[in-house]
Here is the input.
Amino acid sequence: MEENLFNTALLDELGSRKSTMRVLEFYLTDSQKYLLEFDRFISEGNLHGFVEKSHKLKGSLGMLKADLLVSLLNQMEIAVAVDSNFDKVQELMPVLKEKLQILDSQLLLEIKNIKDSL
Here is the structure.
């Protein structure tokens, strides 16, 4: 089994598991939209749009303490800033998509566990 890609410690400071569950559900609602937008920005060559969305996703992932994914997005943003192209981004995108898919599955399981405990 894959190691957890997230940690809810920061979210647990909200005070209730129900609040944590709502934040996780909110993240899951948006996560697939980001991937679609990334693909669009890459196909359009829109460096600014990619970096802007990447930064927003990093913020969400930071709340989930998804450090591996934050690191991947940092690498992508740096590559865009340094090279002004998507070569490195295109190289890392399959890894990002795979890890985000794993994260989504793990979050769905966490939501189920929270619901079961309420």
